[in-house]
Amino acid sequence: MRTRITRGLAAALAVPALALTAACGGSDGAKDDTKPKAPAGTTAAGTPSAAPTTSAAPEATGPLTAAQMKGALLELKDLPSGWKGSAHASAEFAVKADKAECRPLAEALSAKIPGATTGPSADFALGNNASELSESIQTFGSAADATAFTEKLSAALDSCTSFTADQDGTSMKTGVEKLTAPKTAEEAIAVRLKLAVAPGVTVEPTVLVARQGSGLIRVLHLADSAKAKGDFDAFAKLAGDKLAKAAAQG
Description:
Layout (H helix, E strand, L loop, with lengths): L9 H5 L1 H7 L43 H7 L10 E3 L10 E2 L5 H7 L7 E10 L4 E9 L3 H15 L4 E6 L2 E10 L7 E12 L2 E3 L2 E7 L2 E9 L2 H4 L2 H17 L2
Antiparallel strand pairs: 1-3, 2-5, 3-4, 4-10, 5-6, 6-7, 7-8, 7-9, 9-10
Helix pairs in contact: 3-7, 4-5
């Protein structure tokens, strides 16, 4: 059983009914007998191969431009064979936490991070939604403002281990596990969430927040199997490296 995601955490926090209707609709037992040749830059298993470490790009002195944000966004051509674009209904939502130490994390999970300008977003799915990616891009007015937010988020994850997330009156118990993020962009933060979507049903999306200059990306990955969950680092680095490259295009 699992939850499908559309627009990152929005489906889980804002529309728990979607979690329940999709809980048995994943592909735990499904098998895909087609084995397309892995494209260049991926492994035979269809996951991104290790990419060269991105050189540090000069920090943006102001907010990322629309062109830079568009260039930073993952596209279907960036992903291994078998992935597809996944349509979503855009939603404006704000996540709140019942614990003060967890509030920066709640802000990071909201549709719009306070103080930032929202850019483009994209969703992708593999097979029968056995693995899903959701990415959104935001920019602050300056690199200093973006850094202040990531510092606040990183500090929060040192003390926040669980909280009750609330979105428009809908509450969900949320466990928090800080992870070691892959080295990408100027800084990267990773966390695994444990969402109690229903009695006895917990889903564990993994989230990356990466910063380059004034720009921020949030990547959420949700997968059925332990093997697929292990692909998070490769996708996180892929997204973070693309952010760094786009931000360097002045």
